[in-house]
Design goal:
The complex is a heterodimer. Chain A is α+β, with helices and mostly antiparallel strands. Chain A has one domain: Arc Repressor Mutant, subunit A (Orthogonal Bundle), CATH 1.10.10. Helices cover about 55% and strands about 15% of the residues of chain A. The longest helix of chain A is centred in the C-terminal third of the chain and has 26 residues. The mean pLDDT of chain A is about 80. Chain B is an alpha+beta fold. Chain B has four domains: about 70 residues, no CATH class; about 210 residues, no CATH class; about 180 residues, no CATH class; about 210 residues, no CATH class. Chain B has 28 helices and 25 strands. In chain B, helix 26 packs antiparallel against helix 27. About 0% of the residues of chain B have low confidence. Classes of the chains: A alpha+beta, B alpha+beta. At the A-B interface, helix 3 and strand 3 of A face helix 1, helix 2 and helix 4 of B.
Amino acid sequence: MGKQVDILQGTLDMLILKAVSLGPLHGYGILLRIQQISKDALQIPQGSLYPALYRLEHRGWIAAEWGESENKRKAKYYSLTAAGRKQLKSERQEWKRLAGAIADVLAAEPEEV
Amino acid sequence: MLAQVRSWWRALTGQARLSGEMASEMDGHMERYAADLIARGVEPGEARRRARIEFGSTAAASEECREAVGLRWPNEFARDLRYAARVLRKSPTFTAAAVATLALCIGANTAIFSVVDAVLLRPLPYPHPDRLAWVARHYHDQRSEGEGLAENGRIWEAVRDNAGYLDAAVFSDGSMGVNFAAGGRVEYVKQQRVASGFFRVLGIAPLIGREFSADDDREGGPAVTVLSHALWKRIFREDPSIVGQAITLRGEPYTVVGVLPANFQSSTPADLWTPLRPSQNGEGGGWNYVVAGRLRPGVTWAQADTQIEALGAPIFHENGRQTSVRLHLISFQRGLTDDLHRPLLILWAAVGVVLLIGCVNIAGLLLARAAGRTRELATRMALGGGRAALVRQLLAESVLLGLCGGAAGVILGWLGVKALKLLAHDSLNVWQAVELNWRVLAATGCASIAAGILFGLYPALVASRLEIRAALGEAGRGVAGGRNPWPRRLLVASEVALGVVLLVGAGLLIRTFAHLRGLNPGFDAHNVIAAQLSLQDARYATSQRVNRLFDESLARIRELPGVESAAVTLSLPYERALNDGFQRLDGRHVDTEPQITNMFYVSPEFFRVLRIPLLRGRVFSTADSSTAASALVVSESFVRMYLRDDDPLGRHLDLGGGDKREIVGVVGDIQQKSGWGDGSPSSVMPDIYIPSTQVEDKFMQLVHIWFSPSWIVRTTGPAEGVIAGMQRALESVDSRLPFAGFHSMEDVRYRALAQERFQAVLLGALAGLALLLAAVGIYGLIANSVAERTRELGIRLALGASLAQAMRSVALPGVALALAGVVAGSVLAGFAAQLLRHLVWGVRPGDPLTFVAVGLGLLGVATAASFLPALRITRLNPAETLRQE
């Protein structure tokens, strides 16, 4: 297990959108998927996951539906909506732009300035 | 956005379901985590414990989720309201005072708004009423500005032929009583005359039959009529076969061509309609028509208005004298309610000011209350309640007060509407029903909430500006009142100022009413009965026939016991008289153009019945017959206006038609409603009287279209027996002529000033309410300061100050504030009074007497309200006061 990183303010939404874009998931599943994809590098505080889910659902970016989980229990499954797909795309572009800019700044050599 | 609103609404309405879902979702999460931990070899009990700890507080997470879907405000609001209700219940005296004040103010607003709504705001009951226009003449010169609502035949023809943007129709506004006979019944019914297309323009199709065609509506066209649903039901029992049948109207057979639907209302109350047959001559030569129209599809108001103005321009230009007049369009509703527009807006403003004063009063109470709650509020803030939360809580209290006051106000408003209907019975020509409908209730609800915020916000902001430590440390009994007294003082002063504005307005209207009421009527109304009947009747087409009716009926009426004298007149005092043209033919001034004056035809005893004094010459006698020399009698003000430099007796006038008439007498003036000139509801006008025997046939027919002559009878005692006798007397002369109804001349006089009485009473009541509220405000302020300063006053008295000194020190600030309020209010009232300048008569808007009386009166009340609570000091026992502390 590598070193854990705290999630930047505002990136949690993007990560959730990405996680559910791969297929409908319940809350715990989202947590697992993010951890799994990031190879446990990203640790999401469990209590803050649900407010984020409700906020995204309220904005219409994800939709929720009650279904049956793997262990025959009822669970609320979240999936990406069309609006959410658009939002994810724009957030990803924004993130790339930001990350690129930061990388440029960090890569700057003394003679370039 | 829409999705958010939907999600928020779902959350708001299904809070219990939402909580359940969140709980089960989070429990499921923890169970799955625990199961994973167990799979990794953690002991089950420990796994569940760790799952719960790592998840954190589910309550906090749930709360955050609720916030995320926008439930924070509603939840907090509900909590604030619950707390507010508890707080208000704990101080019943304050709550009762505030709710009572609000109930009075909001009740008054509800009642007045229901009238404003019925008359000015509620759309007319026609399809697309916003497309209905009224062609008006806008005049504007140095002396006045306003709307002429009537048009003549020439303007109608110009509009008909050239206003392509308007589907126009012409009609006569106001209905005339006519004689109706059908199915063995004779009745006096209201007839309105309208041109073809009138009903089409309004958008109303007849229930059965048709409306008037162009062929019906020309000179010499068939005699046809359209019936109202009510008349059809009353007389014909809703028999549809009436269409095509004849009834007798105005003594002639008329064919019924249609019946209108039950809910139809015309521009004036009417039982049936007949074709107008507009022309440029006869009545079309004067301002006797109303031209209205519906904008054609796709046409804007601006386009239609420009077209109307353009087609009017050559007409007024040619006239030369009236260059300040132009034609334009106003909304049909505005045209219908023009006479009530201004008085109602003024009343509405006044009742709004009363509400404002009420709010100021309650704001003062809240400020005083906040002083007593300092420790409670400071404690809440010390325990971490933010200032915003505190303000919100205090606002919730005032909004709750507003809603309670509003609810009580609706009940008072309902009573108020009933009272208004009684008072306005015949003064407000209220066109649609005055009622408490959902529109009025919605307005009241908004007013209540707005009032709650209005009076609550300022005290809440002041109260929340607390020094927590000082407030908690203070034992709650400062010396000379540690708090800043100015906010409350300012409120009280502004209350007084607003009160001055209302009192001055009411004073001016009351003075107007007193002036009009006090005018010399010019006749003796006591023991005179008047009864109208319609002579717009084919059987009374000649002057000779009409005069035979007068002679025979009056002769029989004079024989009745209790009758002293009897006469007939074209119109009564206090009514609008016939306006007619005349030219002076000899004397110092000779006219080349006709002048306008009021004209009456009368039977000889007219002056005796009304006891109008004869000043010079003679009045008419039976000798003034149709064959005798043409005679006329003029009024004193006619002489003053037109014959000032001449001996009036023996001068000759031409009343049109080239007939030379000699002035044989001068009589005193009588009060009339001026149809021209200054527009005063009651004033003396220059009058010409001619003997009814000397009226030509054509003129007689014409004036009987507009006027129903009145039989007037002077009795020696009670009228009851005489009324029945008059009916019998008329019946024995002509069994098909019904009297419209009987009134005493005192009634006629009373009704003449109904609108002025209504305005004076209403504004007077509102001003009284304002005065009461201002007095209560001052009283509360002083009483509060006495209570706050009990200890200080006790010390002063113990140190030898006199009672008078102590009382003065407490009460004088109240008087000083009132004085400041009176000065500020007088300036405001000076502006506000200008709004009343069209409603005041016999008194100027800047009437010094009114201003001084209001100022002194208010100061007197303020002094009483200040010293009354200060009297409590006299019961103060210094020793006891000091021991208590």
